[in-house]
């Protein structure tokens, strides 16, 4: 496994200091879990999420571990005292690395552990050869949730019954999704990484793609593209962006024709609707 560099999309409101620290913590996860089995990685992910739960509840401990006026060695030592006998070696090493890092806000320390917890689960899917399926399921689930405002509000509500939200998730996934997808979705609904659950799911899909050093291109088309067409499009985009591209396709009849392609913040609008809108702006 290797740590990837695309941290900005994972936790969009992290400032530069926290983004750099998150990157170092992700690298520590890779080092600490090198050669680990899928089951071990799942356990590490669950333990890191539990560590984040503890720090989320214990404000004094959270602030102390994120206090830059204290030496990194002292913060790491305190984290070791608290966690070494409570979680496995890999999880403990990651938590101590997070404690020794610098954070713009104490809450960023907690969020970083959430991120690496989910990345450990993605690594488990990767170890089992199921990362493609998990990525696709996360992306599709994000689109389903984002397309239904009432569902978005329910899953994102901190006051909604947790068991009720889990039941809704089970119904959405129809008991057919990968176990890692179900675990990630449950964690995200319990502790969102974004203001909207749908955005958090899409960011997890991006994180899955990022693990393979690939970018995600969201492609909207008036008709479904064949597998061959999607493969050729991915090849063209890979040449443009000089890295592998995963194509996620959405069918949108309102486009009238053509394609709208989004890679990160860049949008390529080749649709008939987009051209008409552009013409209208020029004539207006």
From TrEMBL:
Its main location: membrane. SUPFAM superfamilies: N-terminal domain of the delta subunit of the F1F0-ATP synthase. It comes from the Bacteria. It is a peripheral membrane protein. The keyword Transport applies. Keywords: ATP synthesis, Cell membrane, CF(1), Hydrogen ion transport, Ion transport, Membrane, Transport. InterPro entries: ATP_synth_OSCP/delta_N_sf, ATPase_OSCP/d_CS, ATPase_OSCP/dsu. It is found in: Cell membrane; Membrane. Transmembrane segments: none annotated. F(1)F(0) ATP synthase produces ATP from ADP in the presence of a proton or sodium gradient. F-type ATPases consist of two structural domains, F(1) containing the extramembraneous catalytic core and F(0) containing the membrane proton channel, linked together by a central stalk and a peripheral stalk. During catalysis, ATP synthesis in the catalytic domain of F(1) is coupled via a rotary mechanism of the central stalk subunits to proton translocation. Belongs to the ATPase delta chain family. PANTHER family: ATP SYNTHASE DELTA CHAIN. This is ATP synthase subunit delta. It comes from Actinomycetospora atypica. The lineage of its organism: Bacteria, Bacillati, Actinomycetota, Actinomycetes, Pseudonocardiales.
């Amino acid at each position: 496994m290797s740590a990837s560099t695309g941290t900005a999309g994972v936790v969009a409101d992290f400032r530069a200091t926290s983004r750099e620290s998150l990157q170092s913590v992700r690298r520590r996860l890779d080092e600490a879990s090198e050669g680990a089995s899928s089951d071990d990685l799942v356990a590490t992910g669950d333990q890191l999420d539990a560590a984040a739960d503890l720090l989320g509840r214990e404000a004094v401990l959270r602030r102390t571990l994120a206090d830059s006026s204290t030496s990194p060695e002292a913060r790491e030592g305190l984290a070791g005292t608290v966690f070494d006998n409570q979680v496995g070696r890999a999880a403990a090493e990651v938590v101590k690395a997070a404690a020794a890092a610098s954070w713009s806000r104490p809450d960023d320390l907690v969020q970083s552990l959430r991120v690496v917890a989910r990345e450990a689960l993605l690594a488990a899917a990767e170890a089992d050869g199921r990362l493609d399926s998990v990525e696709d399921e996360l992306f599709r689930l994000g689109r389903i949730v984002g397309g239904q405002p009432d569902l978005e509000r329910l899953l994102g509500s901190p006051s909604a019954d947790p068991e009720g939200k889990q039941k809704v998730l089970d119904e959405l996934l129809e008991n057919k999704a990968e176990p890692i997808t179900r675990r990630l979705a449950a964690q995200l609904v319990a502790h969102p990484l974004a203001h909207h659950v749908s955005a958090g799911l899409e960011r997890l899909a991006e994180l899955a793609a990022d693990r393979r050093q690939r970018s995600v291109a969201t492609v909207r088309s008036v008709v479904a593209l064949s597998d061959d067409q999607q493969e050729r499009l991915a090849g063209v985009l890979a040449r443009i962006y000089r890295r592998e591209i995963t194509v996620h396709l959405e069918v949108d009849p309102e486009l009238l024709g053509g394609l709208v392609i989004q890679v990160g913040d860049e949008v390529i609008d080749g649709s008939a609707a987009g051209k008409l809108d552009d013409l209208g702006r020029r004539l207006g």
